[in-house]
Amino acid sequence: MTSQPAPAPPAPTPPASLSATQGGAGPADDAPVVIGDDTTGRSRAASRWRRMRWPLTVLVVVALLVVFLAVVRPPTSAAPYAPDNPEQGGGMAVAEVLKDQGVRITHVTTVSEAVSAAGPDSTLLVTPNPSFFADDQISALNRTGADLVVLNPDFGMIGGVSRNTLDSTYGETDAPVAPQCDDPTARAAGDLALRPGLTDTSTAEDGVRPVLCWPDGLGAYAYARLDFPDRSVTVVTDPAVLRNGTVLEEGNAALALRMLGHHEDLVWLVPNPMDVSTGDDEPTPAERGQVNELMPPGSAPVALVVVLAAVLLTLWRVRRMGPLVVENLPVLVRSAEATRGRARLYRAARARGHAAAGLRASTADRIATRLGLARSSDANTVVDAVVAATHRPSQQVADLLYGPPPADDAALAELARRLDILESEVHRP
Amino acid sequence: MVVTWRAAALMGLGVVPVLLLPADGTVLVWSAVVVLAGVADVVLAASPRRVAVQRRVPGSVRLRSEATSELVVRNASGRRLRAVVRDAWGPSAGAGPGRGSTERVRPASGGAGRHHVDLPDGEAARLPTTLVPTRRGDRTAGGVTIRSLGPLGLAGRQVTLPVPGRLRVLPEFASRKHLPSRLARLREMDGRAAVQIRGEGTEFDSLREYVVGDDVRSIDWRATARRREVVVRTWRPERDRRVLIVLDTGRTSAARVGAADSTGAPRLDASIEAALLLAALAGHAGDRVELVAFDRTVRSRVVGAAGPRLMPAMAESLATVEPVLLETDWPGVVAQVRTRMTQRALVVLLTTLDPAAVENGLLPVVDQLARDHTVVVASVADEEVAGLRSGRDTVAEVYDAAAAARGDLERTAVTTMLRRYGADVVEALPDDLAPRLADEYLALKAAGRL
């Protein structure tokens, strides 16, 4: 029927019944007229309050909680060796004991603050610096006149604070050893397992000779004390004496408390790696909080105006022109997903035999249909028919259509190509 | 409360006085000026809650053709209304920008369906928005948002009014282009039957005088004996046969078919096109057409509509049919057919030849249907799979081709089984399904198998 040439009659217009679906009904003039949204100022305020009250309550509660905690809990930090850090690596344990004993602790983080806070009759503790001190910073620390206690200094710092009577070296420890020196502080602390790292380089001309304690037997010491005429300098290479986590081991606490408790004033310097101040330079305007001096006059009010304009711009853009319209979205699954998924499974499982069998059976099916063979024809019949149609050797055709599965992916691709060629050679008899 | 860019610009202008008199006080005074102007603008703006809004929407429109949603806005606020009005529609309603610029109304930027309105008190305006829907079904409008600005245009008030609006989007019926040629073939069958063809596929029409060339076997001897001249019987294709179109809206109808680089359309849409063309053709051939959309329950039904009422009823009931993510209940389909059709009928099952789904669903019941009725199973094939079949460039493509070949073999097996049970099978790409199904119908009609 479909191939019958249709004598073209004058093109009939689609019947009238179809056009009824085209235009539909005209605009509905009886649609309801809406005035307002049945709210008043009072009802809108009430609904706004109802909507906002829970979030507001939560906000207020959180704010109160924050204020309460801030009042009740003393501020703590997480900086290593800080006197207000209660963690394992902090120094709060030693600081609290010292405070109880009447020592006033000044916590500073820059050299310039340390220089202004420390003076004669005070102790200046320098905790390990994650970076390093510049030479002028070290001399600034030396000039304060305060007794200096330096924990785990780097190579430059050791030379600087000891006037080159000490040098850093490498040492190890595995068990507590006796101080083996005359220093009263060291003797009070007793046996300690401090990592040594100091060696004596002083000569007779230096005037002051360091007292070195806790040796490792190979010439490295963990503790050195220099008594200059105006002040003393103590160097400890192992900061474990100060850390909350290790202060209770052996005599660490005794050593720390005796080192730091000599004077009523203790300046506790936790160095900030970004700090380059030396205490005798002019503070920059930024440090004094006077950025304005660097700006042209009138820039602050202008900036304020610009910020206010930006706020208004934000308010303009943020208000949406009515709510979004909800749309139910359709399912978006492609029908070919199933086929593609199956192909990926074949590939992942390297099921070349399966894939080749599919290609072969499909080709054989099409060829059989084209040659007018019955669907139930066996392999020999199909091969004979193909051989008759293409004049190819019988063995080759049988191999192509019913041969062994391909050994690898390249063979599979080659098989697919050759099946295509074979199919293109078969024509209707 | 809304502010506009003008308020921000006015605030920004404050840079000039501040530069002339650089002090914090200047900023404070200027801010106060801006705030006061804004508040005055809000107070002087016409209340958007005292504007009468009516939305006029055509009842229905065909997919991808144009409809106009019209807002009638009447200003009853007692003040001049300067506002932006948004006629909100969902994305698939395909709202374009407002149309038609007049003194009172002009299209606004910023999105579809927005209009600037400038109305004196007591006057009204129409705001037309063009809709070109991209999805079938009921498209429901959102609210109407009115942003009423004050005389300075710095700030204003905004409200969204719940104005109802619904547009029913009917199927596109793109396959109607195939209808004229099929109708011509139908007429042709008519004439041929009258002259020469006799036997099955025809029913007795009338008696007329013998003319040379008529088949002598069609001479009605009894009637000839009663009259003086030789009389022949004439035949015409059977009429008043019953056609039941069963549209499968189960999960397989949700899958998208189409070229690999498009988002495609659900199988159901192609099935609907085919159903519409078949209904139009059968309706013209004088058969009684019924339709059931079914998955586990009846989703839509057309019964007893004939003549000019048939196609609108079909379009209306197919407009809102959506795929349901459920397995189709084929015994339920058989029960439906049994209750609807007591005498022999043509039952067209518009479904998917998914081998697994067919083996478990349709195959066990198709013989029950085929015993009592002529059954045609029509299925939408996938163009993308057809493309996969011929890929040879990479190893991955060869595996794709192998998987597609396997799928073909399984589908062929299922088709063979269905044919063995007495059902006819039509499988075609989405665009070809409607004409192929129409041809199948014509072939059945010509063969008298209805």
At a glance:
Chain A has 429 residues and is of the alpha/beta class.
The share of residues in helices of chain A is 40-55%
The fold-level CATH name of the largest domain in chain B is Rossmann fold
Q: Which structural class fits the helix and strand makeup of chain B?
A: alpha+beta
What is the averaged pLDDT score of chain A? 84
Radius of gyration of chain B, whole Å: 32 Å
Region (Disordered) (chain B): 91-125
Pfam family, one (chain B): DUF58
Domain DUF58 (chain B): 207-388
Domain DUF4350 (chain A): 83-260
Question: Can you put this structure into words, describing what you see?
Answer:
The complex is a heterodimer of chains A (429) and B (450). By secondary structure, chain A is of the alpha/beta class. Chain A contains 14 helices and ten strands. Chain A has helices at residues 16-23, 41-72, 92-100, 111-117, 135-142, 155-161, 184-189, 252-260, 299-318, 337-348, 352-370, 379-390, 394-402, 409-425, and strands at 33-35, 104-108, 122-126, 147-151, 166-168, 198-200, 211-215, 221-227, 232-236, 265-269. In chain A, the strands form two sheets. Chain A has a seven-stranded mixed sheet with strand order 2-10-3-4-9-8-7. In chain B, strand 18 (288-294) and strand 19 form a beta hairpin. Chain B is α+β, with helices and mostly antiparallel strands. Chain B has three domains: 48-169, Immunoglobulin-like, CATH 2.60.40; 203-237, no CATH class; 242-446, 3-Layer(aba) Sandwich (Rossmann fold). The N and C termini of chain B lie far apart (69 Å). In chain B, helix 4 (179-195) runs parallel beside helix 13 (430-446) and helix 6 packs antiparallel against helix 7 (310-319). Chain B contains 13 helices and 22 strands. In chain B, strands 1, 3, 5, 7, 8, 10, 11 and 12 form an eight-stranded mixed sheet that branches. Chain A: Keywords: Membrane, Transmembrane, Transmembrane helix. Chain A: Residues 1-47 are annotated as: Disordered. Chain A: The chain crosses the membrane at residues 54-72.
